[in-house]
Specification:
The structure is a homodimer. Chain A has about 240 residues and is mainly alpha-helical. The first copy, chain A, has 2 domains: about 60 residues, Arc Repressor Mutant, subunit A (Orthogonal Bundle), CATH 1.10.10; about 140 residues, Up-down Bundle (Four Helix Bundle (Hemerythrin (Met), subunit A)), CATH 1.20.120.530. In chain A, strand 1 and strand 2 form a beta hairpin. Chain A is globular and about 55 Å long. The interface between A and B is medium-sized, with 29 and 29 residues. Chain A binds a DNA duplex (30 and 30 nucleotides) through helix 2 and helix 3.
DNA sequence: TTACAGTCACCTGTTAACAGTTGACGCAAC
DNA sequence: GTTGCGTCAACTGTTAACAGGTGACTGTAA
């Protein structure tokens, strides 16, 4: 018997499943922005009761993918403006995380970041985009983990699934992963060398590049998606 | 008939009430950090069913006041380290908010901030600490609102109640509100004059001062509160 | 044709109950 | 005395049902 995951018990709460599926549907635009997300309808559509749906909506609300207006839940969707906003916030918090991680670097170790980087290198060589994206996020997560700030990690985890789905969707594009990899190497090595201000600048440049690619990919993906269609119902 | 609040319908969801009461109890230390927050026990204690309690726990989890470990909820409490952490995060996001607000200042107006400032001045003159704290938070909220970033406002609203309770608790102290008021005036006037870099520096200095006072007040308040007592049950 | 009123369907907030699981306590065997 | 096992209580995840309220639709009257 081989148990790959030791931490989480068999645990796959139904609410988590609904959260993930609904999140993907909203980001991908399967649920049009502005659509009213009524609990009974969603519950029937996912073939569960209202409880897990309620949990999912609460969670997605804290992720910013669902907004509540007059006690009703509506899909928020992701416009290119939202992506710009997300990257601006990420720059602010990840910069802080990197600085804090650096401050604690004495007793902390960059092992996780190095592991992620190795995985990224292998994925890049094999052009395995999904694996690369996964390792990419793990790399950045390691900064938050190393920062020692639980709340900073919480904020990141709040938006990390959105970035994950975005990366996954936009990675249909045929991009050369080389520059991205080099950028990550530069950030980590500069930080490990103790030149944290320089590393922050590298990070900002990296995020700017990622944002630009993301915005282009997204606007190419759904040219017709408006900022806020008046209303709508979920397709099926 | 006089209706003071026009926006929110009679709306006072039971879950919101539980959230507020539980939040206050955790921050004040009435619920010891590390205590297991079992739904049935809390539900009976608040004389409601598990539903609203569940909502409250989910909300407080996103605020960082409750942590989930092996599917169970535990009170996180607030140590002085947490306060330092909170102010670090706040500096990062509020700085961004101030910059974004400044960028949009052409079509935006600082009316809300000015109103809050006027209220603060009156409260300071009358030494009404609670009113001052309230207006203080409204002042800062206006920056996030003016930033035009919904998610930035969301992050602030996530932690704003914690700051509110902290201010309320620590304001038992007899402090001169003059310097705080002057600090707020300086931030706003500098920003309105378009010298945003200078305003950011003012803001950072202001937050540092606030943090210092908060840490002192808190450590004076509960000298005996440890970082993580092993476990415990809620008192009553 | 338009304005108003009544009806009706839907949705949210809330509650109680059921099922599976986990952790603890106690008892018995070695 | 210690170790292993069985029982049991408590908790989380989940579901179905009830109550109040809101908005839309329709029919009627001016």
């Amino acid at each position: 018997m081989t148990w790959s995951s030791l931490e989480p018990v068999p645990a796959t709460a139904l609410g988590d499943v609904i959260t993930e599926r609904l999140r993907r549907m909203i980001i991908a635009g399967d649920v049009p922005a502005g659509a009213h997300l009524a609990e009974p309808r969603l519950a029937e559509s996912f073939d569960v009761s209202r409880g897990p749906v309620r949990d999912a909506l609460r969670r997605l609300e804290s992720e910013g993918l669902v907004v509540v207006r007059r006690r009703k839940m509506f899909a928020a969707g992701l416009t290119t403006d939202d992506v710009v906003e997300l990257y601006a916030i990420r720059e602010a918090v990840e910069t802080l995380a990197l600085r804090l991680a650096h401050d604690r670097a004495a007793d902390a170790d960059w092992g996780e970041a190095l592991d992620a980087l190795a995985t990224m290198r292998r994925a890049a060589d094999a052009a395995r985009y999904a694996d690369y994206a996964h390792a990419d996020l793990a790399f950045h997560t390691s900064f938050y983990a190393l920062s020692g700030s639980r709340r900073l990690l919480d904020i990141w985890r709040q938006y990390e699934p959105t970035f994950a789905v975005l990366l996954e969707i936009t990675n249909a594009e045929d991009v050369d992963l080389g520059p991205s990899l080099a950028s990550h190497v530069a950030i980590l090595e500069t930080a490990r060398a103790g030149r944290v201000d320089e590393a922050v600048v590298e990070l900002q440049g990296h995020l700017l590049g990622a944002r630009t690619r993301m915005v282009h990919a997204l606007s190419r993906l759904d040219t017709g998606r408006a900022a806020t269609p008046p209303d709508g119902e979920i397709p099926a």
